[in-house]
Predict the structure.
Amino acid sequence: MIPLRPRRNRVSAGIRSLVHETDLGPERLVLPLFVHDLPTAVPIASMPGCSRLPLDGLIEAAREAHGVGVRAVALFPALADASKDHLATASTDPEGLLPRTVRALKRALPDLVVITDVAMDPYSSDGHDGLVRDGRIVNDDSLPILAAMAVAQARAGADVVAPSDMMDGRVGAIRAALDAAGFHDVAICSYCVKYASAFYGPFRDALDSAPRSGDKKTYQMDPANVREALREVALDESEGADWLMVKPGLPYLDVISRVRAATALPVAAYHVSGEFAMLKAAAANGWLDYDKCLLESLLSLRRAGADIIFTYGAVDAARLLAERKRGG
Ligand code: PBG
């Protein structure tokens, strides 16, 4: 028998690059950014290298990302408690923090793809993604609020609105409202398969957006479920979603792969705050090589089937990929 030797395809860098099955480039990445209404940046302790940024700092960060080939940002506003209420009223204010940020960003960087998050939590005094009444989430009464929020974001210039709230029917409600307002070209990136995950902890510190009571298990998915994910995919497709997201990323590679196989739409994965924090914490202890583990994580998300990756490491990854290309 002829001995079969898979190592022949690994013997040199040249051969390895020819047989490389999955590519990773900065054009696949989306950088999430946090904005607030204060004059200076405030670092987020559990997400080293990330800060809540003032408007000018955010524009600088977006410019830096764009300069290294990252073409898209996802914006998250951190509001003061005083401007939050039960109805998330601030989320539809055209002069609110987020619309002002979007307008300034599009003026400064017209080619940048600006993605805005649609959910009530940063604006809600209850810290939930939907409307709370008598301690319960009221799904259908949340929909007009989410739809109005999406329209306000589109009016400010958002290219893609990204409902992350997991209310039933919100993609359809948002699509109808966008179309009625004439925003036919504004796409919807649905956080279609979003799990009730403990890996969002650092993000909730960043926005101070943790639920004031209870948890998000009545709307975010049970980490045990994957058939249910495929049901969400079918619904969001039928309601008019343009991209489908799976979130978190690495612990859910099997889900990404199943979603990839079930849809012809682009699939996004969110390498979430806790995944990023783990890498940073281990690297700070000298236990992991951040650069290598970051690229390996993102490549794995691509291999599982993600076309688009949201990651706090987008700029780091873009720089590392450029160095690699130069042979560094
Ligand atoms: C909120 C939202 C969350 C994230 C993005 N949008 C947190 C949550 O659902 O509580 C998490 C992102 C991250 O952890 O990086 N609608």
In short: Residues 117, 119, 121, 129, 164, 200, 203-204, 216, 272-273 surround PBG (CB under 6 Å). Residues 139-156 form the longest helix (18 residues). Residues 213 and 242 are 33 Å apart (CA to CA).
